[in-house]
Design a protein that fits this description.
This protein is mainly alpha-helical. Helices cover 75% and strands 7% of the residues. Pfam families: PadR.
Length: 206
């Protein structure tokens, strides 16, 4: 079972701390929470907006409507409560780090299990390929080639999805643990993917 990111009442105080940094609209708050948890926690609008409405009722935040967007800002009363609960906020930050680490580990484990399942599926598919090879002997060369292409395409899709899941999990786990993603790392990743794409395109055009 995935651990809760915020204990009861903690999200309320954390929202105040976010708004103390700068006024935000609802989506900006959701995105900030997603970023600060390395993508392991994205609260729903149904989670955030009722709490913002409650903070507004208590006079701790204000809401300004600009077109179709509502901007929330902390009030002096909100800053006073935040200042009086700095110890609680420090505890929330510590618990948040622990919760994100647990979630990241669960994500990594899920990816590992998916990879094991994928390898088993590929092994099974390879076995099926061998068992059906004899059946193809009576088929026309064109039919045989098309059937093989479809099977290889399925393997390519599975490999691409597994690669994406693994890299995504590694990046998010790294960020969740407080690490920084270097520009050079992403540049190298983009260059490698671009090179692989060109190699495949060149091979297909022969």
């Amino acid at each position: 079972m995935t651990p809760a990111v915020f204990s009861h009442g903690d999200l309320r105080l954390y929202l105040l701390s976010l708004l103390a940094e700068a006024p935000q609209h609802g989506y900006g708050i959701i995105q900030a929470l997603t970023d600060r948890t390395g993508g392991t926690y994205t609260p729903s609008a149904g989670t955030i907006y009722p709490r913002l409405a409650k903070l507004e009722e208590e006079g701790l935040v204000t809401k300004t409507v600009e077109g179709r967007t509502s901007i929330y800002a902390i009030t002096d009363a909100g800053r006073a409560e935040l200042a009086s609960r700095q110890g609680d906020l420090a505890g929330i930050e510590s618990e948040l780090t622990d919760s994100v680490r647990l979630i990241a580990n669960e994500v990594r484990q899920s990816v590992k299990e998916a990879m094991r399942s994928l390898r088993a599926d590929l092994a099974s598919a390879a076995k099926d390929d061998r068992s059906t090879a004899k059946k193809r002997a009576s088929s026309s060369p064109i039919d045989e080639e098309r059937a093989l292409s479809r099977e290889l395409l399925a393997r390519a899709d599975a490999s691409i999805n597994a690669f994406r899941a693994q890299v995504r999990a590694d990046l998010r786990t790294h960020v969740a643990r407080g690490g920084a993603v270097q520009t050079s790392t992403i540049t190298d990743l983009e260059a490698s993917l671009d090179s692989a794409a060109h190699a495949i395109t060149a091979a297909l055009s022969k």
